[in-house]
Amino acid sequence: MTACYIENDAFACAWLRNLIADGLIAPGEVFERSIEDVRPDELDGFAQVHAFAGYGGWSIALQGLGIPDDFRVWTGSPPCQPWSEVGQRKGCADERHLWPAWFRLIRERCPPVVFGENVPEAVSLGWLDQISADLEAEGYAIGKGIFSACAVEAPQERERLWFVAYANGEPLEWPAIARVERHSWPAEPDVARVAHGIANQRNIVRAIGNGLVIPQAQAFIEAAFGALTDV
Asked: 145-156: b or e for each residue (b if 16 or more CB lie within 10 Å)?
């Protein structure tokens, strides 16, 4: 068991368990509950902790770069609804603002490196300021940037804010990263846009909509590791 996946959506948790069983993401345990209900001591013994895990996109991205499953790294894609233009933009007043719960675990367990992402609108509503201040107070150095999925040739904009935090203000000695082959994308992904009232299909569409664009995450990880390959 090298990874812990924290996710409160039952369908996504079932998906994660199937991916683990099939060897498609790092082997580990799925915590099917809110991150607010996770105790720091429960994370002892896990090399990787993937908060707000969705379908395991961060693990897929790391494995695709050749990063071993026992490399110590935490990741998270917190809910974007408090910040997104399509939401009510309540910001820190929204009950789905779960950075404080995630930071509580980070502060107690001090992972050597943390990756995260959110919608770029989170910058104007103070999310980036808060996470930067919290992490820097604990001795982390922060790197961040905004870029779109179309930068890795995906047929969508999907602009995202990305960050990486290094413990003790210093980058680690990173593992060697495999060359990532970039491929052309189909003009339209083969996913039905309407669920037609079928519960399972709605779950799939929701999960995909909340997921990472894997090559987009890999491009940021490569840059953070200082080993950006020619593409």
From this structure: eebebeebebee
pLDDT in tens, 93-122: 777 789 999 999 999 999 999 999 988 888
Q: Compute the CA torsion angle 120, 149, 169, 83 (nearest 10 deg).
A: 20
**Number of neighbouring beta carbons within 10 Å of residue 48:** 24
3-state helix, strand, coil in the chain (%, to 5): 35, 15, 45
The answer, yes or no, to whether residue 48 has pLDDT greater than 90, is yes
10 Å Cβ neighbour count for 39?
A: 10
Q: In whole angstroms, what is the distance from residue 62 CA to residue 69 CA?
A: 8
What the chain holds in terms of domains, given with CATH numbers, is: 3-224 (3.40.50.150)
- Alpha carbon distance 95, 106 (integer Å): 20
Listed in sequence order, the residues at least 6 apart from 37 whose beta carbon sits closer than 8 Å to its beta carbon are: none
Alpha carbon distance 28, 47 (integer Å): 10
* Distance of alpha carbon 134 from alpha carbon 31, whole angstroms: 25
Tokens at residue 8, please? 């409160």
The model's pTM: 0.86
Beta strand 113-118 with 73-76 is parallel
Residue with tokens 């000695």: 173
